[in-house]
Design brief:
TIM Barrel, binds zinc ion, four-stranded mixed β-sheet, six-stranded mixed β-sheet, 2 domains, alpha/beta
Amino acid sequence: MIDSSAIWIKNPLSIAADDASGGIVVREGRIIDLIESGKTPSAEAEVFDASEHVVLPGLINAHHHFYQTLTRSSDHGLNKGLFDWLKSLYPIWAQLEPEMLSLASKLAVAELLLSGCTLSSDHHYLFPSGMEEAIGIQVAAGEELGIRLMITRGSMSLGSEEGGLPPQSVVQSEEAILLDSEQAINRFHQAGKGSMCQVALAPCSPFSVSRDLMRSTAELARRHDVRLHTHLAETKDETYFCLDRFGLRPLDYLESCDWIGDDVWLAHGIDFNADEIIRLGQYGISICHCPTSNMMLGSGFCPVSELEEAGVAVGLGVDGSASNDCSNLAQEMRQAWLLGRLHSGPDSMTHSDAIRLATEGSAACLGRKELGKIEVGARADLSLYRLDELRFSGAENPLAAIVQSGVSRADRVMIEGEWRVSSGEIIGIDLEQLRHQHDRAAKKLMSKYYLS
Ligand SMILES: [Zn+2]
């Protein structure tokens, strides 16, 4: 009798797990068995022949801004560093509407899924008038496409009139932010292993929120046992801003806001000195490395090997995608691999390290240690890649080829034991229609900006 709810992903071409050359067995959303070479599962199961697939744990994106897919390659943002880039784009983003965010979220999730991503974080901090339902819109988009989400309720309260970077048109009152943050947790956060949607709180950056809001957000998050996220140490400009306004470097400022703890993950983490790297390890804070965004904006590089040596968990994020211009997490692994070697030498960032950042590292950032690995008891989130493109022809080591030759599209993606991508297509979505609708929404956003 075949147990129809069990699937044996049989004899993979290669798999990122020990003792699983014969494949893995998945049932009820979990990995229940690893099969050694030449062996068969103890119980019968449906067979999926993976002999032409490289099997990885589902990739996890630890930092993103879905809405920014609407302003990719904008003339207003070209060839600028972070602060000028943000100041050019804030007034455009201020024109965001609910339908635009819905399409932007679906398109970003579709791109991520097709690259092999099974859990994505999103940092949404834009709540201009009319966008009060932004978090609900993102949750609905994730549900429709079947991806796991870590939605962070972001915030901006420090407008240019109070010495912040963003214009007043995109900041909110701190009272409204805290009220809505608590509502977002109560409505959408699912605690526990296997959760499909979690919420974290995420004041945007030292230059767009007040110290009071940082402190009250930390207090609120800890009262509800949800995680904390923000951009930190992204550029020298940010460090100068912190020194000028608070008399503190970014990590000292974070400490002064009661943000020290293993419930905190930070996007970027570039401008840390040696002492700060050691302290990050002692504090249990994790870092999301965003190599493409950092290179595109000329921000610098995250010292991944030094951070890991200090015991800091480092994950991977596509960021943007207006500071990346795409949302492909598989390609981001290759960027991390290349940048890591440029920074620390050829043995400091192997292809396995790059895969680990995008899986276990990101899972640690998001507090989801039951994800990001292939072992008995882990959730059944998997990405399967075929090596049948020209770029892979002749490759000896399939796992190395994924990173070094640069895979960009998954053939199969499984989330919580369900196939969400099959033969390179997202199940149940008209992708062409979504692309047309998204492109029209992006044009409408720009025309609203020009008329404003
Ligand atoms: Zn970001």
